[in-house]
């Protein structure tokens, strides 16, 4: 039984930083500790700080590094998130979802003389892996973790999109180069925005149309290089014009010219630095901390969350309740240390890539479609009471699992998420490298994997261009070019992968600082460092200033 106290002060086993496990954390760990066969198996307090736990989970999600490789079930080529050199078989989606194989056929006995993680890796390396996650799509062959979309190319983690290219759109049409852009149409290079139409190079904007080079603009139309405005039209660098003046000034700006494009970007960035910034991005929340949080309640240190309640230390969630330490998922409850989950997931702990009406899973990976009460399993569908993919009766399972957990306590494994060595991906193939970037030398020094040729840059016909940052060759596809021509801006001089990294760099790191409002001096927790130049306002002061 966990002993509750006000908090526990700990030192991170990975980075040596000090962190706190507070009373609410301990109560949650007690709540999700599994009861199996009448025996409660207490989940111990984490050994790593929240940031290192986040980084570790992110290293289990590759959504944008894709490869051409052979399908190991049939003599044919397939596109895959797993490169040819991986140690396990990879099946194309039609083969993986087919009836020609059964994951339980790979089941093995648990060996109490060996560590669990060692045995899990051996099982993982025998079970076929799903090459791509794609559901109900039309002409979206070069997309991963995408559903109900049409004619899209190299988008990831998206649903209900059409004619979109590169990035993470959600319910969008004709959008190119986006990052977490939602419910929008005809947009280019828009980040963390919602309900935009005919907008380009925008960040943190909503319910607007005709914006170009804008930051934190809401309920507005036809604004150019503006920041921190609401209910405005015909503004340039935050200065009001009449329609004719606005159109005449813009007609003299040639954004296909690299020099003029760079000048506009420089003026816009200077203005953006000078306007007041809300201490966090979010609306309609109650008792939350973090950034990019919407319609949520009682959440702590969450980043990119919507319609969540009682969730902590997590990233990019939708409709999740009563959970802790999650990375990318939706529609879940009572989850702990889970990376990538979707569609009715409950009572799952210490697992990755599990989705589709699954519950009561412990240390499982890639399990889907009605899997429940399983421990240490890989690639199961429609299964229950399995350990290392071997079938047991309910009574055998409930007797065996508590013994395995006791064994894992002795080896020091119990309660910790899978180590990096279990991840099927190289570090730089995963979203961990996007939000916790590391040099190859440091990654290898830690004993983690690295792959020099990670990901596609785009491989359809077109004239090759050279990325000005990385030197990588890339192509501008016809649908993408039409959007650039529509906005009358010069074609990109950076590869899709580099443009994606640039968009992520627009966000603050997922770290909270104690600051005071620069207007009224009330205390706030913000992702803006105290060393930054931005003016940070509390909610009340910001609303008075902008609205």
Structure write-up:
Among the domains are: 7-52, no CATH class; 165-278; 288-420; 464-505, no CATH class; 513-546, no CATH class. The chain has twelve helices and 33 strands. The protein has a ten-stranded mixed beta sheet.
**Whole-angstrom Rg:** 24 Å
Instruction: State the helix count.
Output: 12
Could you give a short account of the major beta sheet?
10 strands, mixed
Number of strands: 33
Low-confidence stretches: 1-5, 457-461
Determine the structural class based on helices, strands and strand pairing.
Answer: alpha/beta
Estimate what percentage of residues fall within beta strands: 35-45%
- The strands making up the biggest β-sheet line up spatially as 9-10-11-12-13-14-15-16-17-18
Helix content: 10-25%
- Average per-residue pLDDT, rounded, comes to 94
Keyword list:
39% strand; alpha/beta; 547 residues; globular
Short description:
Among the domains are: 7-52, no CATH class; 165-278; 288-420; 464-505, no CATH class; 513-546, no CATH class.
Produce the secondary structure layout.
Layout: E1 7-11, E2 18-22, H1 23-32, E3 35-36, E4 39-40, H2 50-58, E5 67-70, E6 77-80, E7 90-91, H3 93-96, H4 116-124, E8 129-130, E9 134-135, E10 144-147, E11 153-159, E12 165-170, E13 173-182, E14 185-203, E15 206-218, E16 221-230, E17 233-236, E18 239-240, H5 243-251, H6 258-274, E19 276-278, E20 282-283, E21 286-294, E22 297-306, E23 309-342, E24 345-355, E25 358-362, E26 368-375, E27 381-387, E28 390-391, H7 394-411, H8 432-435, H9 440-445, E29 464-466, E30 473-475, H10 478-487, H11 496-505, E31 513-516, E32 523-526, E33 535-537, H12 539-546
Parallel strand pairs: 7-8, 9-10, 10-11, 11-12, 12-13, 13-14, 14-15, 15-16, 16-17, 19-33, 20-21, 21-22, 22-23, 23-24, 24-25, 25-26, 26-27
Antiparallel strand pairs: 1-2, 3-4, 5-6, 17-18, 27-28, 29-30, 31-32
């Amino acid at each position: 039984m966990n002993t509750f106290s006000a908090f526990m002060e700990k030192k991170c086993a990975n980075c040596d930083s000090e962190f706190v496990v507070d009373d609410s954390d301990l109560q949650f760990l007690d709540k999700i500790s599994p009861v199996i066969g009448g025996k409660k198996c207490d989940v111990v307090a984490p050994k790593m700080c929240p940031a290192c736990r986040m980084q570790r989970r992110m290293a289990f999600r590759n959504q944008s590094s894709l490869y051409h490789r052979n399908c190991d079930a049939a003599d044919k080529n397939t596109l895959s998130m797993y490169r040819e050199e991986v140690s396990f078989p990879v099946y194309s989606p039609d083969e993986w979802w087919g009836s020609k194989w059964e994951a339980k056929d790979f089941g093995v006995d648990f060996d109490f003389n060996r560590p669990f993680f060692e045995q899990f890796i051996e099982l993982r390396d025998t079970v076929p892996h799903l090459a791509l996650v794609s559901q109900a799509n039309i002409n979206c062959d070069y997309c991963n973790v995408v559903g109900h979309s049409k004619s899209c190319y190299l988008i990831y983690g998206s649903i209900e999109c059409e004619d979109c290219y590169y990035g993470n759109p959600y319910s969008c049409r004709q959008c190119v180069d986006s990052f977490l852009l939602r419910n929008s149409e005809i947009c280019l290079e828009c980040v963390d925005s919602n309900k935009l139409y005919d907008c380009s190079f925008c960040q943190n904007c909503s319910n607007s149309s005709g914006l170009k080079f804008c930051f934190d603009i809401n309920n507005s139309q036809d604004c150019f290089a503006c920041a921190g405005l609401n209910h405005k039209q015909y503004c340039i660098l935050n200065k009001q014009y009449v329609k004719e003046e606005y159109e005449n000034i813009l007609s003299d700006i040639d954004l296909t010219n690299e020099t003029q494009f760079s000048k506009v970007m420089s003026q816009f960035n200077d203005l953006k630095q000078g306007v007041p910034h809300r201490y966090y991005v979010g609306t309609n929340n109650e008792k939350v901390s973090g950034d990019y949080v919407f319609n949520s309640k009682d959440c702590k240190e969450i980043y990119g969350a919507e319609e969540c309640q009682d969730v902590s230390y997590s990233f990019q969630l939708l409709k999740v309740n009563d959970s802790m330490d999650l990375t990318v998922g939706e529609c879940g409850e009572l989850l702990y240390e889970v990376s990538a989950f979707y569609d009715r997931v409950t009572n799952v702990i210490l697992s990755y890539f599990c989705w589709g009406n699954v519950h009561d899973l412990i240390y499982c990976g890639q399990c889907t479609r009605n899997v429940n009460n399983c421990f240490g399993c890989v690639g199961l569908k429609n299964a229950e009471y399995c350990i290392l993919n071997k079938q047991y009766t309910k009574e055998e399972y409930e007797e065996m699992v508590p013994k395995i957990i006791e064994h894992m306590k002795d080896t020091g494994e119990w309660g910790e998420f899978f180590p990096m060595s279990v991840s099927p991906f190289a570090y730089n193939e995963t979203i961990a490298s996007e939000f916790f970037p590391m040099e190859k030398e440091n990654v290898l020094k830690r004993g983690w994997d690295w792959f020099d040729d990670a990901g596609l840059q785009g491989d359809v016909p077109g004239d090759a261009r050279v990325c000005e940052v990385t030197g990588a060759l890339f192509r501008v596809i016809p649908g993408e070019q039409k959007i650039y021509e529509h906005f009358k801006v010069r074609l990109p001089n950076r590869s899709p992968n580099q443009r994606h990294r640039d968009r992520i760099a627009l966000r603050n790191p997922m770290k909270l600082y104690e600051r005071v409002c620069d207007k009224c001096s009330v205390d706030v927790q913000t992702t803006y460092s105290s060393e930054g130049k931005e003016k940070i306002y509390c909610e009340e002061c910001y609303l008075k200033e902008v609205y």
